[in-house]
Amino acid sequence: MSETTTAGNTVPSDLEIAQRAVMKPIGEIAAAAGINPDALELYGPYKAKIDPAKLTVPAGAPARAPGKVVLVSAMSPTPAGEGKSTTTVGLADSLARAGHSVMIALREPSLGPILGMKGGATGGGYSQVLPMDQINLHFTGDFHAITSANNALMALVDNHIFQGNELNIDPRRMTFKRVLDMNDRSLREVVIGLGGPAQGTPRQDGFDITVASEIMAVFCLATDLNDLRDRLGRITFGYTYDRRPVTVAELGVQGALTMLLKDAIKPNLVQTIAGTPALVHGGPFANIAHGCNSLIATQTARSLADIVVTEAGFGADLGAEKYMDIKARMADVAPSAVVLVATVRALKMHGGVPKDMLKEPNVEALAAGVANLRRHIRNVEKFGIIPVVAVNKFSTDTTEELDWLLQWCAAEGVQAAVADVWGRGGGGDGGDELAAKVAAAIDAPHGFRHLYPLEMSVEDKIRTIVQEVYGADGVDFSVPALKRLVEIEKNGWSGMPVCMAKTQYSFTDDATRLGAPKGFTIHVRDLIPKTGAGFIVALTGAVMTMPGLPKVPAAMRMDVDDAGNPVGLF
What we know:
The chain contains 19 helices and 25 strands. It folds into three domains: 14-52 and 69-140 and 264-443, 3-Layer(aba) Sandwich (Rossmann fold), CATH 3.40.50; 142-261, Domain 2, N(10)-formyltetrahydrofolate synthetase, CATH 3.30.1510.10; 458-540, Formyltetrahydrofolate synthetase, domain 3. By secondary structure, it is an alpha/beta fold. Helix 6 (142-162) crosses helix 7 (214-221).
């Protein structure tokens, strides 16, 4: 996030700004967006679900083309903060301020990072979606439903084994885990079924965080309820004793899982501080999953607005690549424009400046750090789109540093604008210049393309991503990963795209190597076929699908006041 530009004043927290904002009843937001009342399911006065099947076009209204997508991505994140969600919200507000028909499509926040260290996913300052505290906590219960469906599946699997194991499932070869929407390293590896024959079959198990669940990925890639059921049925949760993959459909429980998700699958409607409608739905992480909000929400937004501003998690090497090669491949949601968020602070950190020195002007470090941004720019161009750079302004940025960065972008052949949407958002003019450049980029001709064809082998797909996007020399596959490649080919799964699980902080699989490193190898330790989602996850380096909490979790400063209002939530 950025900081307010008003010197000498006490800067209110994001939560304080959100609590002071005056929200409109969600029915008014829906009506202004063209959502008929029959399609709206209220969850209190300020949030609602939309049933896409009940959306109607007013009698006599002309048919409209689907809205164009603006994808917001970023440079490689640092502890200095980049403010991608803040920029997404501020950009959408500024486009609406300029008279465009706009809707936002964002992911839902995960409770684990909220209580840990990463923070929420509702933007910041005066560029937030509201009600901020409810969205960042339990919201409409979607993550609870996904967690329940995931764990119901595993309870049914273990019960099937206990009750005679008609499918001949090998408990030693389970590939699906239980999940929890929390950072809890103690649950990464567990043993279940202890206590004697009546307690089940003992086996090694573990937990992933909910956002890494394949059911989350299925939820976010399904086109409707029937497609959701079909995808759930295609999930491979383990193997038989004779090494044959076993699916949810063979167990016969895809219907029950669909029932648990039938309400959650409907997109959630909220609003920004400025009153721009926003759909917040689904929430896979981009470092361990595909990092995009639900396809249903994106398509719903496109049916209602001329421009849909969405984002993909972390840097463009992760979320944006996965949006282009997974989400946009599975549906007609290719972006018409891409925005790369950068900050002077983060670029200086990539240039070698420690976090406690970032407030000091340092054009030399900025010049060293832009190598990271350059690689992201060139990577986006490989998909046939020239990005627009959004420089998210912090109060410590000097005019000299901002001017230098804008001149550098011009020399690189990309449009760029300073966005002061943290302090001047909420319908203010802080994002007007950025909005104008993005609107022009939407109308500019481009030839979108994927990075690789699906016919390419899984090994070559991984090598293409590693070399073309990360800038690595090559890939080192572990012995288990090599065995999995053979298994994937044997089972007919090689035609799926690849979802790389990699640290978000570096182009390498080593989080400490900042900037734009060269001369490195990516180490793939395992491959996990996600046959319901329709992609292969490649686990690299030491990336974990169940994060841990930091030494001093953010939860230590959180509480409620006497009226029950949250305090300390960002």
